[in-house]
Automatic annotation (TrEMBL):
A Pfam family of this chain: NAD_binding_11
Protein name as it appears in the record: 3-hydroxyisobutyrate dehydrogenase
Every 6-phosphogluconate dehydrogenase NADP-binding domain range: 3-161
A GO MF term: NAD binding
Signal sequence coordinates: none
Domain of life: Bacteria
InterPro entries: 6-PGluconate_DH-like_C_sf, 6PGD_dom2, 6PGDH_NADP-bd, HIBADH-like_NADP-bd, NAD(P)-bd_dom_sf
Ranges where the 3-hydroxyisobutyrate dehydrogenase-like NAD-binding domain occurs: 164-270
Length: 285
């Protein structure tokens, strides 16, 4: 019988799956589209959510879209209905803290399962080798149950607070990430306008006090943005969605900080030059 089930084998889910299989976990997986090409006696893909849910006591949710998350958890043949009694559901999908609390309550009331939020954040190493931060929200009792599972595939498990706190920390992290990236792009563009070689400048900044994770890891994407090609649509969409969640979270807590509003300008910077020109001519954002 599998130790763990995982739902969503996209960019992050597939790497987590590879790590688990590499470390000897028996893993069942479901994704209607993605094929991670994992070949191992301990790995199998199921034909439906319900089929996979019935096989393991711990479940990792890494789906991308909120409608898919709702269906996964609450459909008649979904995870909630078909999982073993008292299962652990680990929510990796990025959502607002408010939504975490709603999902946690509904999962517990309807099915008797425990849902903890464990937000994902990259580190310097490979996720497939266990280099991963998990920012976890839950009670002490939740962590006692979930930590042994989480430490199977992540080397930095941080209990940041009560249910929902993991996603709050993740959104704060991504707010800083996008702010740093916007500032880095502006600095590189300013340097180029003054005749500096962008690659030389990036290397100098990366080795100096102005360095950041964004500056160190986004060089290819930044080059495309600086020469007018823009960022891939999937990157722009993810950035817009996560900044929107940060705005929703901070609005619920009080006023939206000015630095967050300024970071939304990153979305304009990420558009291809042609699209930016069209927006300017039409007057639509």
């Amino acid at each position: 019988m599998p130790d763990i089930a995982i739902y969503g084998l996209g960019e992050m889910g597939a790497e987590i799956a590879r790590c688990l299989v590499r470390r000897g976990s028996a893993l069942a997986a479901y994704d209607p589209v993605a094929d991670p090409e994992i070949v191992s006696p301990g790995f199998r893909c199921g034909g439906s959510v319900g089929e996979v849910a019935a096989t393991a006591p711990a479940h990792l949710v890494v789906v991308k879209r909120l409608p898919d998350l709702e269906a996964l958890l609450f459909a008649d043949d979904g995870l909630g209905a078909r999982a073993m009694p008292g299962s652990l559901i680990v929510l990796h999908t990025t959502v607002t803290p408010q939504l975490v609390l709603d999902l946690r309550r509904r999962v517990a009331d309807r099915y008797g399962h425990t849902l903890v939020d464990a937000a994902l954040s990259r580190r310097d190493g490979k996720i497939s080798e266990g280099s991963l931060s998990l920012l976890v929200g839950g009670t002490d009792a939740d962590l006692a149950v979930s930590r042994p599972v989480l430490e199977t595939y992540a080397d930095n498990v941080v209990h940041v607070g009560a249910p929902g706190a993991g996603m709050a920390a993740k959104l704060c992290n991504n707010w800083l990430l996008y702010s740093n990236r916007h500032a880095a792009l502006q600095a590189l563009e300013a340097g180029r306008s003054m005749g500096l070689d962008v690659d030389v400048l990036r290397g100098a900044l990366a080795a100096s006090t102005g360095s950041s994770w964004a500056l160190l890891h986004y060089s290819d994407l930044d080059a495309a943005i600086l020469d007018g090609r823009g960022a891939p649509a999937v990157v722009r969409d993810r950035t817009a969605a996560e900044l929107g969640m940060v705005r929703e979270m901070t609005t619920a807590a009080g006023a939206v900080p000015t630095t967050l509003e300024e970071t939304f300008a990153l979305l304009d910077t990420m558009r291809p030059a042609e699209a930016t020109a069209e927006v300017g001519l039409s007057g639509r954002g």
